[in-house]
Amino acid sequence: xxxxxxxxxxxxxxxxxxxxxxxxxxxxxxxxxxxxxxxxxxxxxxxxxxxxxxxxxxxxxxxxxxxxxxxxxxxxxxxxxxxxxxxxxxxxxxxxxxxxxxxxxxxxxxxxxxxxxxxxxxxxxxxxxxxxxxxxxxxxxxxxxxxxxxxxxxxxxxxxxxxxxxxxxxxxxxxxxxxxxxxxxxxxxxxxxxxxxxxxxxxxxxxxxxxxxxxxxxxxxxxxxxxxxxxxxxxxxxxxxxxxxxxxxxxxxxxxxxxxxxxxxxxxxxxxxxxxxxxxxxxxxxxxxxxxxxxxxxxxxxxxxxxxxxxxxxx
Length: 315
Hints:
Blueprint: H1 2-26, H2 34-47, H3 49-68, H4 73-77, H5 83-95, E1 96-97, H6 101-123, H7 133-145, E2 153-154, H8 176-185, H9 193-206, H10 208-227, H11 232-236, H12 241-254, H13 262-286, H14 296-309
Antiparallel strand pairs: 1-2
Helix pairs in contact: 1-2, 1-3, 2-3, 2-9, 3-5, 3-6, 5-6, 5-7, 6-7, 8-9, 8-10, 8-12, 9-10, 10-12, 10-13, 12-13, 12-14, 13-14
């Protein structure tokens, strides 16, 4: 009788751990919903089976570190130790090459969970969220390590460029339909319309308001980046959209207690607009190092608004 009870407890514990890990995937877009995590995982796997496996394992690793490290159980169950690890695992798998790059990516996912815990402690004094800062820091450092350690190599996509020879190319047409769905896909480094459609479904499933804010954030980024004369290729590939979507959801919904429509919508739009020049600026700053901007524009825009809100409570 005791053995059956123990077996049932273990099965329940494993199931709960898996649910938490799926929430870790959904938390990448600031949503705590296991079903949303499943649909996101389907979107990733439909593009790349390897990335799907790495995403799930990365979230499991991050969640496991939170568990064995004795973190607050509520934070673990929310998936807050998984999402930065997921992004790190995907990024390092894509941006590094070599026979063991996926192992290094999973190691990076583990370290990111530890860095997440460290930043949680630091940011609580500022009363500001960690967001995706641990993922950004760890990924940049790991990519820079490739210049000094032979065992780790960069992919050919990341090439340092001299700013003195840089030329802005705004030629070509914009595929607005592709741009509509590419933005949300780029949150997970995905660049195809089907994945974008699935991801929008995942967000709307968690709440129609969240879905609406994602659509508005992406539309704002498309229009503002086009109006400011951004490179057309980057616009419809979604490289201006994904940060705007995250900022819109974060500022307008997740970190906004106002139940009305006008203030959250306008503040979210402001945050989305800010991500466009921030994306252009951060991408230019990193060009000589061959590093991607990742979600730094989202982090900067969101922290600017949330920080200002402590002084300007109506913002």
